[in-house]
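Name: Thioesterase
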Amino acid sequence: MGVATEGASSPWIRRFHPSDDAPVRLVCFPHAGGSASFYFPVSRSLAPAVDVITLQYPGRQDRRHEEGIGDLHDVAEVLTGELRPWADRPLVLFGHSMGASLAFEVGRRLERAGIVPAALVASGRRAPSRHRDEYVHRRDDEGLVRELKELSGTDPGALGDEEVLRMILPAIRSDYRAAETYRYRPGPDLSCPVWALVGDRDPKVTVDEARSWGDHTSGGFELKVFDGGHFFLAPHAAEVNRLLADCARDRVPRP
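Structure predicted for Thioesterase:
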C-alpha cells in the first residue's frame, strides 16, 4: 500500500496539494485550537517542490464528534506511528505554539526509531525545558474566549457566533489543557538542526525562552525573531514560507 493511500485513510493526515515527486516532506502541527486548514496557505505556497502534510487533531471540523486530545506524550506516540509510513523521504517538522511541543516529542520518538528528521522548526513556543505555570484551560467559557481574542489566533467571526463557539470551545479547552499540563521528560533530545521562530511581543514566550531550544539538539540551531505577537506567522507568511523552503532544501543551520 502506498503512502498516499495510507494517508487518505488516516483521520490524522491531510494533504491539500499532494506532491508525490517532491524530494522532501513538511509535516505541520497546528496550535491549540487550530486545525489542519490553518496550514493550507503554506501547502499552496510550497507545492509542488515540497510535499506538505498537515495534521488534524480530534475534536474539530470533520473530527468534531471525537474526544479532544489528551496528554501530549500520548498523542506524540500515536502521531509517530501515523508518520512512519511517510518517512520514505526526509521529514521537516514544523509546529506552532502547542504544535511545536508536539513536533519536538514526535521528533524524539522518530529518532529513537532510527528516523532522523531533516529539521525541526519550532514557532511561537518556549523550549521544552522552560516551564511556565499556566491555567487558561481552567477558565470559564468567557475567560477562554477572551484569551483567544487577545492572541488573535481564531476567526473573529467564529468567536461572535454562539453556535460555532459551542462546537469549538470543548476542543480548544482540551488543547489548552494538553499544552499547559505538558512536562518535558529528560532523555535523548534531537540530533537534527532546529530553528526557533518567535514574535518579539509574544506574551506566551520570550526571546530568551525561545533561544533555549538550542539546548535540545546536538545539531545546528538558529533563532529568528519577528516583529509581532503570538501569531506573527500571518503578517510574515512570505518570509516564514521562504524559511521553510530553505529547510526543505537542506539550507539549515549546522553545528
